[in-house]
From TrEMBL:
This is Ephrin RBD domain-containing protein. The keyword Nucleotide-binding applies. Gene3D superfamilies: P-loop containing nucleotide triphosphate hydrolases. Keywords: Nucleotide-binding. NCBIfam families: small_GTP (TIGR00231). Signal peptide: none annotated. InterPro entries: Ephrin_RBD, P-loop_NTPase, Small_GTP-bd, Small_GTPase.
Amino acid sequence: MYVDRSTGRLGGLNNSESGGVADAKNLRVKLVLLGDSGVGKSCIVLRFVRGQFDPTSKVTIGASFLSQTIALQDSTTVKFEIWDTAGQERYAALAPLYYRGAAVAVIVYDITSQRRSTKHNIG
């Protein structure tokens, strides 16, 4: 999925199998955030959906769901269905349930950490 900056049109979604449902002017896109615990996934989602930053954000248990609708220049609306997954190891087995059928996966990590997670096998 991409937005053509010259036209403001969304491209790359052709059918519901890719995590999105499209009619002429309304798209629904499943988006999932993946990454270790404490890297800022929930903060990114809250900033995108509510325009807020919460430095005291709580740890996500399982997953949380939020949505955000965006209007493009050509009057197309895109509703992002956002799944913020838990980063703790004990919830790793549940992650595939959340990212199955997603059109977009955002992998969040701490660039200051020597340890880089490779636990999310998306393939």
